[in-house]
Amino acid sequence: MRRDVTEIRTMETTKKIPTSLYAEMTPNPAAMKFVADRALITGGLQVEYRSKSEAMGSSALAEELFNFPFVTSVFISGNYVTVLKDESLGWEMIVQQLREYIREWLMENEVAVSAIPADLVNRTREAAEGNDISAKANASSIDYTNFEATEYDDEIRFLLHEYVRPAVESDGGAIDFMAYRDKKVYVQLKGSCSGCPSSTATLKGGIENLLKAKMPDIVEEVVAESV
Q1: Would the pLDDT of 47 be above 60?
Q2: Which of 59, 73, 74, 93 keeps 20 to 30 A from 52, CA to CA?
Q3: DSSP one-letter code for 71
């Protein structure tokens, strides 16, 4: 009787999860977005890994992807994974291999992220009650430790969340509000937006113009950095 139960349990644990996955180009020629038919990370979170060591203990999928020598960054949010690569190979040579590899991995694993270290976490709703500047400074090339919260921060977060975030996420990226000071809005670009040649044009022609129009005399410039 015990043997029968054990056999059933073994069959259940090895049963694969039906998963569909497709690849989608992004405005960044170095980035490819792989979209699944189910959530890959829970709690409305998103996380970017810049190395295998960052992924260790957090995302086994990201760890595995860094075994491909051309992978430089892995960004996971909602139901998709954005992979950034170096220039050693063109996407036409590797995209099918990566798609099948990720799909097979997801068929054997329910979620792509098991835990997120505090220095990597980013809440997509800009909710983290938003203002742990000291933690953000650790992942930034700009020293935000002397930046103070202002009366305009919440409105800026709202505008970015409502008008900018959907478009950025559809391209496999993310934008984080960092700080506001001296009529400048500081943001970080992640995922496919990181290092994207068109990011500057998008920043100046879209995000900056939006904030200047919605908050005249308050916002004059948007300053962005990639991490």
Answers
A1: yes
A2: 93
A3: E
